[in-house]
Structure formats: structure tokens, C-alpha cells
Design a protein that fits this description.
Number of helices: 14
Structural class: alpha+beta
Strand content: 15-25%
Shape: globular
Helix content: 25-40%
Oligomer: single chain
Number of strands: 22
Length: 528
């Protein structure tokens, strides 16, 4: 009897651990880059699985980022699936008799805007047409390895999936870390790689608003030590949510007092408004279709939607810790909106407009109209076969193995907010895009294939188009959805080429890859 019970237990365990299917390509992360990677591979006739921890695909573009920053890029180089997505968005609005303030055929510097639910709809249609299997609400727990090769993924739900090629398209780089691939978090020092923008950087002026109370820093102040200029550390640029807002009474959900609201949390805002009473609403707002507004952390602002300094642990945090950090960001954001609407210290002009504003009623209804995706601007950065630096962005722009042309300016949001000895505060870490922008656009440069693959000794069947191998400074240019979407498509094609040739990703014949990318409309070179 005992032997029978043991046998039954072994059978149950085998069934529980048996992988679901065996895919040619598994993409982890339903971000825009993950979507283009999955579609590209599926259109080549491969079986593709897309796994996403959240209950929706599209990452930030479905989560509130309602124009994807291509207005500051060389749009002539953003073709392939990136262009197709926007063509489909344009066609959707046209079919409903809505004229957008731009045309995708015109490669100008206008904002190419869309509503979040439209982005999600278009992404889902493209995935379905390509035959990509999509599984949502699945978070990676462990990667099964055979030497330097990933053989399968185990999720926190207990499900397992096996595959031949893997693509980490997550914002956090969780799969590359699970596979034992080396990565960095934080900022290199100015001396390490000779980058003039590296390390602590002070491009914003100090603010006179008092930041201390009874010898202690107020909430929203990261610390009291002014980091030496150019010093490296573990700090990363601030996270925030992209809000979808409306001033239309028929499509507005008013801001309400959060259950955990504490007005003392926003004392620094009070003092800031007292010191600078002509300051308006402290975040950027961009008009988007549907008579709505996209609310974004203001890179030029001193106080905004970004919860500066509260995200430093997020990239390598546990799932539970990340959930707590996410919740803290939401609590801060909801409290700030209520504060701006009600607090007497806020200028009348700001309070009055905030009272007319609210969440867009027809967006994010399943999530209480609050965006479900946290804007993870920077997390892990792989240390791969080629490590991009500032020089690759601004000086040595040509590469022999180009898989994309990127051109977003170097752009980093605040990394910390420091109480100054004089009693005020200063935001540190901002790199203003104007520093590396010419006539409204960044300087174009080629992105090498080697920067999306790990070192061969670490993993031979993984591509990483989001948490790319780059320094903090170089990543601050790569880190936008248009560049990631192009890199995702290139990664999907590269995975197929590796499968066809039965070689490691490091051994892919670049000439063969380049020909395949060009055939798909990818732009690999540019004219200066």
C-alpha cells in the first residue's frame, strides 16, 4: 500500500511539473517590445507564447502613455511593426469619422496620439492575427537551465512552459536575471566609462522652499547628503503613473479622498507653492483623442507625479516588495490629486482646474479608472556582448551589426531629491533632452545586435530588447517604446534565424539576419 501511495505521489508531481507545450519562442513581457517580438516570430511560421504578469498587453502604451515619444526621433527609421501599429490606430479613428491631428505617412515631429484602450485593442488584434498564444496574469518564478541554455519557465502559479528560444521583453529584466545573466542597476560613475553625463548630475537649480522640520527631512525628500557630482550609485530615475484624465462632465470620474490620505505627506508642496506661488499644476498634460489628457511626470518640474527615491529597490525586489512599492506610488498619486484639488495652500487657479478634472470614465474601468501599469523607466540593464555607452549615442554611432536606428535624446528624470545645507532642496539626476537634441530630435545612431544578447558563457538562447546592454546614460536614450518596439521586432526575427540555423544567438549570421530584417521593412542605416 505504501509503495502504491508513493507511486501515485510521483505521478501527481510529474503531472504538476510537466511543461505546457513546447514552443519555438517564448516571450516574457507583454510590453510593446514583447508584442513586436512575438508577432515577428509568429509571422515567420513559428509557435510563439507571450507571457505577461499583468491582466493586459501593451505595457505603458496600453497603460496611459498615449503618445510614445517618436516625435523626438527620426521617424523615417521607425518602420516595420512600429509603423504598422500606428497605421492601424489611424485607420481605427478614420473608420469612426475622427480626424487625428497628424498623419502617419508624414514623418514630422507631431505627437502621434491615441487613447489607451485603442492601443490595447490594436495590439490584441495584431497578436491574434499572427497566431500568438497570449497568457496573462503569469509571473515568472524560475528559469530551468541546462548549462547556459534556458529550457523552460516556472511561474508563480505553478505552471511551466518549455521552449527553444526565449526573449526577455519585461521592463524589469526578470528573465535575464533568472537565467543568471549579468546585469547592472544604478548609475556608473563619470570616471568609469568617461561619460560626461554619468553619475550624479545637477542640471536643475536648487529650490528655496524649506525641506526640513525639527531637524528632519520632510516627506518626499530622499536624504540630506549632497552626492558629489559624477559619483556613481544604485539610484535610478523616478517612476510614476501616466494618468488618463478628462474635463468632460459626461466622461469624468472625480478625484476623491483616498482612505489613507495624510495631508502632511504633501507639506513640501505647500512650502513650494508658498515660495513659488505662480506655479501651476505640477505635471505635464498632453491632449489626446477622445477629449482627454495624458498626465505625465514633468521632467522640468521640481515636484511632480514621480515619487522620487522610492523606487531604488524595485528592480531586484521580491514580488511582494514590488507590490508594496507599486501600492506606495499609487497612494502618493491619488493623494496628490486630492491635495491639489482641496488644500488651501494650493493656488486657486490650480485647485479650480483640478476640481473640474477627473479620471477618464471610459478608460481603465476594470481598475477603478486608475492606470494599471507603473512607468518603470529604468530597472536592470544587461551586461551583454556589447555594452553601449554615451559615446555610442553621441560620437561612434555606426555599428557593423546594426539591428535598429534609434534617435531619442539622452533623457533621465530625477533620481533623488536632496535637502540642501541652506534649508531648501535640489533634484538630482535629471538629464534634460535638449542637451542632446538637434532641431527637436535626438541624434540618430545604430544599435548593434550584440547589445541585445548575453555573453555566450551565460546564456545561448536569450535575447533582451528592453533591458538592453547599456550604461545608465546610454539607456536614457534607448528607454522609449519606439526604440524598444523596433528592437523587439529585430529580436523576434533573430530568434527565428537562430532556430533555422540551429545555432546560439551569439552565432547568428549577421548578413542573413540583416537581409531578413530589411525584407520586413526594418531600417538599419541612415544618412547623416
Amino acid at each position: 500500500m505504501k509503495k502504491i501511495l508513493i507511486h501515485l505521489l510521483i505521478c501527481v508531481l510529474f503531472i504538476a511539473w510537466k511543461p505546457a507545450g513546447n514552443y519555438d519562442v517564448i516571450v516574457y513581457g507583454g510590453t510593446p517590445a514583447g508584442i513586436t517580438a512575438a508577432i515577428a516570430a509568429a509571422r515567420e511560421g513559428r509557435t510563439v507564447l507571450l507571457l505577461e504578469p499583468l491582466p493586459l498587453v501593451g505595457g505603458m502604451m496600453s497603460g496611459g502613455l498615449s503618445f510614445s515619444d517618436s516625435n523626438q526621433m527620426l521617424r523615417e527609421a521607425l518602420l516595420g511593426l512600429f509603423e504598422e501599429f500606428h497605421q492601424r490606430v489611424e485607420a481605427y479613428y478614420t473608420s469612426r469619422g475622427i480626424t487625428l491631428p497628424y498623419r502617419v505617412a508624414e514623418k514630422d515631429t507631431k505627437h502621434w496620439t491615441y487613447e489607451p484602450h485603442v492601443a490595447e485593442k490594436v495590439f490584441n488584434e495584431m497578436l491574434k492575427e499572427a497566431g500568438v498564444e497570449v497568457i496573462l496574469n503569469e509571473t515568472l518564478k524560475q528559469a530551468a537551465m541546462s548549462g547556459p541554455r534556458i529550457t523552460g519557465l516556472r511561474m508563480w502559479s505553478g505552471r511551466r512552459f518549455s521552449g527553444k528560444m526565449f526573449i526577455d521583453a519585461s521592463y524589469e529584466g526578470d528573465l535575464l536575471a533568472a537565467a543568471g545573466v549579468r546585469f547592472r542597476v544604478g548609475r556608473e560613475s563619470r570616471a568609469e566609462l568617461g561619460e560626461s553625463f554619468a553619475g550624479a548630475v545637477y542640471q536643475k537649480k536648487a529650490v528655496a522652499a524649506a525641506s526640513m522640520e525639527a531637524g528632519k527631512p520632510l516627506p518626499l525628500i530622499s536624504g540630506t547628503t549632497v552626492t558629489p557630482e559624477g559619483e556613481g550609485d544604485n539610484r535610478i530615475m523616478t517612476y510614476s503613473f501616466r494618468l488618463c484624465l478628462s474635463e468632460d462632465p459626461a466622461n469624468r470620474v472625480p478625484f476623491t479622498r483616498p482612505a489613507d490620505y495624510d495631508e502632511k505627506r504633501y507639506e513640501l508642496f505647500r512650502r513650494f507653492y508658498k515660495a513659488m506661488p505662480k506655479t501651476g499644476i505640477p505635471f505635464d498634460m498632453y491632449p489626446i483623442p477622445g477629449n482627454k489628457l495624458d498626465g505625465n511626470n514633468g521632467i522640468g518640474g521640481q515636484l511632480s507625479l514621480g515619487l522620487v527615491g522610492e523606487n531604488w529597490q524595485y528592480p531586484t525586489a521580491s514580488r511582494k516588495q514590488r507590490q508594496a512599492i507599486w501600492a506606495k506610488h499609487r497612494s502618493y498619486t491619488e493623494g496628490l490629486l486630492y491635495f491639489l484639488m482641496t488644500d488651501p495652500a494650493v493656488p486657486d487657479s490650480v485647485r479650480n482646474r483640478m476640481q473640474r478634472m477627473g479620471y477618464a470614465k471610459d478608460e481603465f474601468a476594470a481598475y477603478g479608472h486608475f492606470p494599471p501599469v507603473l512607468y518603470v523607466r529604468e530597472a536592470r540593464r544587461m551586461v551583454g556582448e556589447y555594452f553601449l555607452t554615451q559615446a555610442d549615442i553621441l560620437e561612434h554611432s555606426e555599428k557593423p551589426d546594426a539591428i535598429a536606428v534609434a534617435s531619442f535624446p539622452i533623457d533621465s528624470h530625477d533620481c533623488q531629491r536632496i535637502a540642501t545645507p541652506g534649508g531648501g532642496f535640489i533634484n538630482e539626476g535629471t538629464i534634460f533632452p535638449a542637451k542632446t537634441r538637434v532641431e527637436g530630435r535626438g541624434i540618430p545612431y545604430q544599435v548593434p545586435y550584440r547589445s541585445i544578447i548575453p555573453k555566450a558563457a551565460e546564456c545561448v538562447n536569450l535575447l533582451v530588447p528592453v533591458c538592453i546592454s547599456a550604461s545608465h546614460v546610454a539607456f536614457s536614450s534607448i528607454r522609449v517604446e519606439p526604440a524598444w518596439m523596433v528592437l523587439g521586432e529585430s529580436a523576434g526575427i533573430a530568434a527565428v534565424v537562430a532556430l533555422e540555423s540551429n545555432v546560439a544567438v551569439q552565432q547568428v549570421d549577421y548578413s542573413k539576419l540583416a537581409d531578413r530584417l530589411k525584407a520586413k521593412g526594418q531600417v538599419l542605416s541612415y544618412q547623416k
